[in-house]
Amino acid sequence: MGSAILTGLLQPGVTVTDSIRVTNRTAAKARELAKLPGVTSLALEEQPDANRIAVAGARVVLVAVKPALVPDLLREIGDALEPGTIVISVAAGVTVATFEALLPESVAVLRSMPNTPSVVGRGVTGLSAGTRSTEDDLAIGRAIFETVGTVVEVPEGQIDALSTISGSGPAYVFLLIEEFTKTAIAKGFTPEQAAVLVNGTFRGATELLAQSDKTPEELRIQVTSPKGTTERAVAVLQRAELSRTFDEATDAALERAKELAAGS
């Protein structure tokens, strides 16, 4: 996710006033990122204090490591942060309270939940303020994530629920495409033909929704002719109680988010 945001910041028309510093564990990955214009890339295997070097004097620090690594990282960089620095979390399940407890009081914290379509500039990011952040801090965070898509500001109490919708949502869509593709192949189409049919249908339908002033329900009804083939198929899907299935799936994801927040 950090790489996706970095890609957004490097797009034409995006203004970054200072150089961007990034850290990685391996020298190979660091060398790859060092090729990007305006990016200083540091490898922990070559410079053990790379994280502290990277955050020194920074206005904004993006923490995009695995949740289990966050506490040690914050302890490592805490006293290297300048007063007024904004630290933005991209770590699932790690609360603002955890960040604020491990960082100096002079540092503001924002919590974010981007999703993988950020890689292609179509991301949806949930953004929450911390107890020490200002409206200006939030505006800076919003501007960063708007380089890779749209931003929805929510209270932190909603960020885990948001993660079950937009954060995990792409996986739900890919699963639907995966299963629909299997169905197309079972109907006699080649895998290549099935991919064209299914991928194109999903892309076209979502683009139609994006450009229309109609709701998904209205568009579905528009496609569904009375007593036609689509109506018969939709009736089968509705009998499968998809609404209940999605409720159960997102509830399961939310429970896991709570487990991550509790450190389990």
Can you walk through the features of this model?
By secondary structure, the protein is α/β, with parallel strands linked by helices. It folds into 2 domains: 2-18 and 58-159, 3-Layer(aba) Sandwich (Rossmann fold); 169-260, ProC C-terminal domain-like fold (Orthogonal Bundle). 51% of the residues lie in helices and 14% in strands. It contains 12 helices and 7 strands. It has helices spanning 2-9, 27-34, 50-55, 70-77, 96-102, 135-145, 159-167, 169-186, 191-211, 216-223, 229-239, 242-261; strands at residues 20-24, 39-43, 60-63, 86-89, 108-113, 123-129, 149-153. The strands form 2 sheets. The protein has a 5-stranded mixed sheet, sandwiched between helices. Helix 2 links the parallel strand 1 (20-24) and strand 2 (39-43). Helix 7 (159-167) crosses helix 12 and helix 8 packs across helix 9 (191-211). The two termini are 22 Å apart. The mean pLDDT is 93.
Mean pLDDT: 93
How large is the share of residues in beta strands?
5-15%
**Radius of gyration, Cα only, in angstroms?**
22 Å
The count of β-strands is 7
How many domain regions?
2
Helix content: 40-55%
Give the second-level CATH assignment, the architecture of the largest domain.
Answer: 3-Layer(aba) Sandwich
SSE class: alpha/beta
CATH superfamily label of the largest domain:
NAD(P)-binding Rossmann-like Domain
In angstroms, what separates the terminal alpha carbons? 22 Å
Side by side, the strands of the main sheet go 3-4-5-6-7
- Annotated CATH topology of the largest domain: Rossmann fold
Series of H and E elements: HEHEHEHEHEEHEHHHHHH
The biggest beta sheet reads: 5 strands, mixed
The top level CATH class name of the largest domain: Alpha Beta
Number of helical runs?
12
Shape: elongated
Low-confidence parts: none
